[in-house]
Specification:
Length: about 350
């Protein structure tokens, strides 16, 4: 393990603790490799019946990938730098796939900030996964904010959210809380943050074979405590606006709605990369008809094309390097984005036989 990924065993449950609090547990390549190694080892270990993913801080489970690292490596002139970046996304997406199909109960304690790559390491499959949110949960797929797109399987799980909720979350990048995460199908169970110490004690004293059922039973009395779901209240509005046939049509629809919710969504989209809004819209449309492996393979193509284009590097520069919050998007307006520009993002740089995720 690395200094930032720690493991313990308790009653045939393997417990993974992310411990990089200064960066809200942002994932490095070493952390991805450590998570992969331990999950592969525990998958085949007859002495492990369940796995729990948690954080050493209630501020965040995981805020996503280490975007400063993306910038530092992505702007290097050397091929070694680009190779490191290629490894990051290839290995991260393999980890996402491993978790989704993990054969043992996989419990993610999604307390605090859970964004981007944090969702990717939490979204285990419905047969074995249990995603616990709290009143401290702050969730988002915010990639469009930095000129990226909802990856780590986002094209799969956002495309399968009820109605057009996935389009709303993917195209605005706005945050949601526990009730909305439950309503959108991005979480399973609510536990108040004040009960997390008791939940931790339960995890450490319950046999792994009974862990998933025990947590579900523990959480049952709090089922109504997550509060109202804004996404439920605004569902008709979301489906109407984000069910439009293009990004341009979505923006036009939102512009005609004076409501606070619609105007907040509109304001968010106006700040995003016009090109990546178009790419994200196309990605979600495609993802709805693809399995997870194909979604991850497509996302891997888009990552390569995005860094070649440089949009994500400009977004990171504006947000965390220069911190001017004034990204110079290329092109700067939606009207200047052509179908050919979008299509280029989806054109694989590899033949099928050489795709880095070909064996998923």
């Amino acid at each position: 393990m690395t200094d930032f990924v720690k493991t313990t065993l308790a009653n045939r449950t393997g417990i993974i603790t992310l411990d990089r609090p200064r960066t809200l547990n942002s994932l490095s390549l070493d952390m991805i490799r450590a998570l992969t190694d331990v999950l592969l080892a525990w998958r085949d270990d007859a002495g492990i019946d369940a796995v729990v993913l948690r954080s050493s801080t209630d501020k965040a489970l995981c805020a996503g990938g280490d975007i400063r690292y993306f910038y530092d490596v992505g702007t290097l002139p050397t091929t070694g730098g680009s190779a490191s970046l290629e490894d990051f996304f290839t290995e991260e997406y393999r980890l996402n796939y491993l978790i989704h199909f993990y054969p043992k109960p996989y419990v993610a304690l999604m307390d605090g900030v859970v964004m981007g790559g944090g969702l990717g390491i939490s979204e285990a499959g419905p047969d074995t996964g249990l995603r616990v949110v709290t009143d401290g949960t702050k969730m988002a797929m915010p990639e469009v904010n930095i000129g990226l797109f909802p990856d780590v399987g986002g094209s799969y799980f956002l495309a399968r959210a009820p109605g057009k909720l996935g389009y709303y979350l993917g195209l605005t990048g706005l945050n949601i809380r526990a009730a909305d995460a439950l309503y959108a199908g991005l979480a399973d169970t609510f536990v108040p943050q004040a009960q997390m110490a008791a939940l931790t004690a339960l995890i450490e004293t319950t046999p792994g074979a009974r862990l998933r059922a025990a947590i579900t039973q523990f959480a049952a009395p709090f089922a109504g405590d997550a509060g109202p779901a804004t996404l439920l209240t605004e569902r008709a509005s979301i489906d109407r606006h984000f069910g439009a046939s293009s990004v341009e049509a979505i923006i036009a629809s939102l512009a005609l709605d004076p409501g606070e919710f619609a105007q907040k969504a509109l304001a968010a989209m106006k700040k995003r990369s016009p090109l990546l809004l178009r790419v994200t819209f196309e990605l979600l449309q495609r993802g709805a008809t693809m399995d997870l492996a194909d979604c991850l393979r497509l996302e891997r193509i888009l990552v390569r094309r995005n860094f070649e284009h440089g949009e994500v590097l400009e977004g990171i520069r504006a947000l965390v390097i220069d911190k001017d919050n004034l990204p110079k998007w290329n092109p700067p307006t939606l009207a200047q984005v052509t179908d050919a520009m979008v299509a280029q993002f989806f054109a694989s740089p590899w033949p099928v036989r050489a795709h880095p995720l070909r064996d998923l």
